Amino acid sequence: MQPGRALLMDLRDAGSRAGFPIRDRDAKCTTAVAALVADAGLKIAISGIRMPRTNSLMERWIPTCGREPLDRTLI
Fold this sequence. Notes:
The chain is mostly helical and 75 residues long. The chain contains three helices and two strands. The longest helix is centred in the C-terminal third of the chain and has 18 residues, at 54-71. The protein is flat, with a radius of gyration of 16 Å.
């Protein structure tokens, strides 16, 4: 619990505006973690059923969205 609290405080100090952390339906995320996130004012978005590849696809797609417009810009 303490590392989670430290992470949330570091994110708040850095000015992060995260609103919806995404997690899968694994049993590793206990009710204590959910309560910690709820106390921080965040709402957990749970990924869909039988979608194990979603996180890896999004981790690859999001940086591409930032890179491609810059690659096509002429200065």
